[in-house]
């Protein structure tokens, strides 16, 4: 029996009560916009479908000629020609099929390339707010699962539907022309198998949903426990056996469901085979009776039987075609959801390029909130086709850990049935949305060219937020920020990035060589420039002591290096960039005294001649600052030099006595 489709799933009926998506004209138009560059190949693809269908439909007619004409008339010439045709048709069909497959792949892979590139480019333009409100796993899913689903919609679902329609129309036309009564008789038995097929379809759908859920559990466990931080946590708490047991449980469920799917799907194939056998038997029995009565030729009966076996599969597939097509469009909807998220950090068309920068920085009445007027900036959690939402999966996994005594499962002895999110389903959006909270309120200060300005204040005062606003990782909610008198919103993002260098407290390195991580700042830099930057950051001697030197791979997130070594490489990377304005978090308290001394010396080199905004943790940096900004609860409460602020007896004086002075004394003792 020939199957004109992508697989058994195309032939089962979906549960009408669940997940029947709708498609709109606007969605179809957007899909066509992605397919438009491949319209000539699409026309050629349809042409190959017509050719293959015509050749396939020709084969039963050859049998009819063989039985009714060539053999009875003992026509050897006709017999030879028919035999040759029976070989030539599959050969030509196969060659055209290769061309069709090539066209189909070029269209599908082209669409997936365009979608992935468009998604990645759009995500690259998102603000930092987008990434803080979106789980990395969801981004990866949009770039992989949903894009592949969209590709299948173009290269498989649509092609299958078109192929089935053309083949069915051609087959039925020929069958009715040969003998309309036998054709109707053969089709009459099909409804008898629809109900059982729907029941099997629902069972397969349930198994598919469960398979997706347990696969999601496995992926979540691997994602959480096979990265550096997760693996470390598992080992520190001695949870290897428990995590293995949880992973094994889900893996076993996937295995068992796979076996059930194989059995149930085979049952479906058996039913489809029975449909074909019954239909063929009825046609042969009635047709044989008609042939005995000289009302029909034997060749016609054989041809009708051959056509009938080829008709059932596409006919059953097309009964579900509208739902299949709508389901395939869901992936496009999810892709378009990402592309429709507005870019928060916009670059004006007339934005100017920052070329020669003096380094004068001004914050004018700047206020900022991480909330964006109640709008969701990140990607919403989705319940994927045939499976539940991600929230349910996380709740389930948390309850399992909690039930096993894992501290990650809950808090303060909370039972597995008392998860605080469980009772949030009936709350309105207004009740769930907290009151808007400002991280910064009415901040104004100026950094003159070449000045070192230190940011101090208790945790949560807004220091890091200020450093995020200067390179325009976020835009102020109110007020404006200027460089050399130009609003950041009036300059190009590329030139802004070229003139601002940032070293964060957590230095991130790619899983690559030291050379690649350094040259990320300036790919065109020479070897001499890279070495000079490494020397300035006091990391060159360490690198040269390694077996592979600058070609040493640093490992995941740079974990093959110590914290001090990672930070010095990050500093060298910024030195190589050679920015005019420097933003850094001078967090060195967690490092040993040798690493800290090397980093402090490197920072002194890099800050010379540059406008620097530093979150200061050392008294030496504060004393060297041209201006000290004292932050508290999002407000600039004091500013001035060290002696001036001490004389005021305010927050800075308190911080000096409780934080900076004791730390400095302990470091001096340690030295």
CATH class of the largest domain: Mainly Alpha
Largest sheet: 6 strands, mixed
Give unreliable regions as ranges: 1-19, 382-389, 406-433, 665-671
Average pLDDT level:
79
Question: What gross morphology would you assign?
Answer: elongated
Q: How far is the N terminus from the C terminus?
A: 84 Å
The tally of beta strands, per DSSP, is 10
- Gyration radius from CA atoms, angstroms: 35 Å
Helix share of residues? 55-70%
The number of helical runs is 22
CATH architectural category of the largest domain: Up-down Bundle
CATH superfamily grouping of the largest domain: ABC transporter type 1, transmembrane domain
As for the number of domains, it is 2
CATH topology of the largest domain: ABC transporter transmembrane region fold
SS class: alpha/beta
Briefly characterize the structure.
It is built from 22 helices and ten strands.
């Amino acid at each position: 029996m020939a199957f004109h489709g992508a697989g058994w799933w195309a032939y089962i009926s979906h549960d009408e009560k669940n997940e029947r998506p709708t498609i709109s004209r606007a969605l179809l138009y957007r899909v066509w916009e992605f397919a438009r560059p491949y319209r000539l190949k699409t026309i050629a693809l349809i042409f190959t479908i017509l050719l293959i269908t015509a050749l396939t439909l020709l084969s039963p007619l050859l049998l009819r000629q063989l039985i009714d004409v060539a053999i009875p008339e003992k026509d050897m010439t006709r017999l030879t020609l028919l035999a040759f045709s029976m070989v030539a048709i599959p050969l030509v069909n196969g060659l055209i099929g290769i061309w069709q497959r090539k066209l189909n792949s070029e269209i599908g892979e082209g669409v997936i390339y365009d979608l992935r590139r468009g998604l990645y480019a759009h995500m690259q333009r998102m603000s930092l707010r987008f990434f803080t409100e979106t789980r990395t796993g969801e981004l990866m899913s949009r770039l992989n699962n949903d894009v592949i689903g969209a590709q299948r919609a173009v290269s498989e679902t649509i092609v299958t539907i078109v192929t089935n329609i053309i083949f069915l129309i051609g087959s039925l036309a020929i069958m009715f022309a040969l003998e309309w009564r036998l054709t109707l008789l053969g089709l009459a038995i099909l409804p008898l198998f629809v109900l059982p097929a729907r029941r099997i379809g629902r069972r397969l759908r349930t198994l598919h949903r469960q398979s997706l859920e347990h696969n999601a559990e496995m992926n979540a466990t691997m994602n959480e426990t096979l990265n550096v931080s997760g693996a470390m946590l598992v080992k520190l708490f001695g949870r290897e056996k428990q995590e293995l047991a949880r992973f094994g449980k889900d893996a076993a469920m996937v295995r068992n469901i796979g076996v059930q799917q194989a059995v149930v799907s085979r049952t479906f194939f058996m039913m489809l085979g029975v449909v074909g056998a019954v239909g063929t038997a009825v046609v042969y029995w009635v047709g044989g009776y008609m042939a005995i009565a000289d009302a029909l030729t034997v060749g016609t009966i054989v041809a009708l039987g051959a056509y009938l076996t080829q008709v059932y599969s596409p006919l059953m597939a097309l009964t579900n075609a509208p739902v299949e097509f709508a389901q395939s469009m869901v992936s496009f909807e999810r892709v378009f959801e990402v592309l429709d998220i507005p870019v928060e950090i916009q670059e004006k068309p007339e934005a100017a390029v920052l070329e020669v920068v003096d380094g004068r920085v001004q914050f004018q009445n700047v206020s900022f909130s991480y909330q964006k007027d109640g709008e969701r900036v990140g990607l919403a959690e989705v319940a994927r086709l045939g499976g539940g939402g991600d929230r349910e999966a996380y709740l389930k996994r948390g309850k399992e850990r909690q039930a096993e005594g894992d501290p990650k499962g809950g808090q303060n002895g909370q039972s597995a049935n008392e998860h605080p999110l469980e009772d949030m389903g009936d709350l309105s959006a207004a009740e769930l949305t907290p009151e808007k909270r400002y991280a910064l309120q009415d901040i104004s200060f100026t950094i003159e060219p070449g000045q070192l300005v230190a940011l101090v204040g208790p945790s949560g005062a807004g220091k890091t937020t200020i450093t995020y606003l200067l390179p325009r990782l976020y835009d102020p909610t109110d007020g404006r920020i200027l460089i050399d008198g130009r609003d950041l919103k009036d300059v190009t993002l590329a030139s802004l990035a070229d003139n601002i260098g940032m070293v964060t407290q957590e230095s991130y390195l790619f899983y690559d060589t030291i050379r690649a991580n350094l040259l990320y700042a300036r790919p065109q830099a020479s070897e001499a420039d890279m070495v000079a930057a490494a020397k300035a950051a006091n990391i060159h001697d360490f690198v040269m002591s390694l077996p592979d030197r600058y070609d040493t791979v640093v490992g995941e997130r740079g974990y093959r290096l110590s914290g001090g070594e990672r930070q010095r490489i990050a500093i060298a990377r910024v030195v190589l960039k050679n920015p005019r304005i420097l933003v850094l978090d001078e967090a060195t308290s967690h490092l040993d005294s040798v690493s800290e001394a090397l980093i402090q010396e490197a920072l002194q080199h890099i800050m010379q001649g540059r406008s620097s905004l530093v979150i200061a943790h050392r008294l030496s940096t504060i004393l060297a600052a041209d201006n000290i900004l004292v932050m508290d609860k999002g407000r600039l409460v004091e500013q001035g030099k060290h002696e001036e602020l001490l004389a005021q007896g305010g927050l800075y004086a308190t911080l000096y006595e409780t934080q900076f002075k004791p730390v400095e004394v302990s470091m001096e003792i340690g030295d």
